[in-house]
Amino acid sequence: MLETLTGQKKKDYLDRIIANLMALDWLEPTDIPLGGFNASLDVADHFVVGAPLDETASFRSGCGDAPLEIRKMASNLEPVDIYTWSDIADVFVHDFGDIIFENREDLFRKIETLMNTYTSKTPLMLGGEHTVTAAVANRFKNHLFIMLDAHADLRDSYNGNHWSHACVARRLVEKVGGEHLFQIGLRGITKEEKQFATENGIRQYFSFIWRKHIIEYAVNEIKDLLPSFEGLYLTVDMDVFDPAFVPGVGNPEPLGLTPREIFQILDLLPRYDGMDIVELNPQFDPTGASQSVAARLAMFLLCHNDFNQR
Ligand SMILES: [Mn+2]
Fold first, then answer.
1. 116 CA → ligand 1 middle, Å
2. CA proximity to 62, closest of 159, 134, 129
3. Which terminus of the chain faces fewer neighbouring Cβ atoms within 10 Å, N or C?
4. How remote is the CA of residue 114 from the centroid of ligand 1, in Å?
């Protein structure tokens, strides 16, 4: 079979073999794929994968349930995205299910394997705690990281842990450099973190800036910067949303942005070459409101990318 194939067909065939091997190995398939139906890997433009790391919660754990709860909620939302009028069913998404792992190092290796194997497909990773974003640093080291977060996450260590979710931006900057990090929506930060950001050329937009300005200034600055990078990587910590809208997070922080403000920012930017949604903690929102924002965000991002082709 293999000898008769060339080019893209051969690559797709090999992709499928690898996927099958890996699926047996350490991927737990889902029966509620994000977007409603599971496009086969060879035609998918995007892949979804759950990375339910829930190890270093500094306040309250539970974000390991997020991938499942996001998929469940997504299956109960209407399929049409009102920003693009795309139907999620028309977007080719392959949902790998969740990664089974032993510890953080093991999870990181597996995330890197997926990212490096399927470079022609755009990943959407569902956390898990924010630490997982550091696992994509090598794959996207030439990209600009748009980080939506209430917290700067720039500590060198937290509670004695170098790999705490409170340190993820620091780990990222060590790999990609401060000029590759663009933070939006911050309001939880230490003076040391602010100093580190200034010294390392990290761009920071705080949540209290009048809403019109945060949207226009941040978006315009990103567009100006974009030609110097290979593209955009987007990481959304669900605590960037005001806790009135998204109480289901590990570390709620008031004075946040509204879902409409966040979606507006994301809508004004071009396509994202890689994405993650992290830190949703469904245990702290029995109403499901937080899960619905996360699920709509996931569907919106897939439709946005499909609409804004490369
Ligand atoms: Mn974070």
1. 24
2. 129
3. N
4. 22
Using the mean position of ligand 1's atoms as its centre, give its distance from the Cα of residue 200 in Å.
19
Question: pLDDT tens digit string along 191-229?
Answer: 999 999 999 999 999 997 666 677 888 999 999 999 999
Distance 153 CA to ligand 1 centre (A): 6
Structure tokens at 70: 């996001």
The structure tokens 């996927």 sit at 19
Please state the domain extents for the chain. 31-307
Q: Domain 31-307 belongs to what architecture?
A: 3-Layer(aba) Sandwich (3.40)
State in Å: Cα 143 to ligand 1 middle. 19
Tokens, residue 135: 């696992």
* 135/297 Cα distance (integer angstroms): 22
For Cα atoms 188, 190, 196, give the angle at the middle one, nearest 5 degrees. 115
Question: Tens digits of per-residue pLDDT, 267-299?
Answer: 999 999 999 999 999 999 999 999 999 999 999
Going 16 to 304 to 73 to 275, the CA torsion angle's sign is: positive
Ligand 1 centre distance from Cα of residue 168 (Å) = 7
User: Among all chains, which residue has been given the structure tokens 């409101």?
Assistant: 289
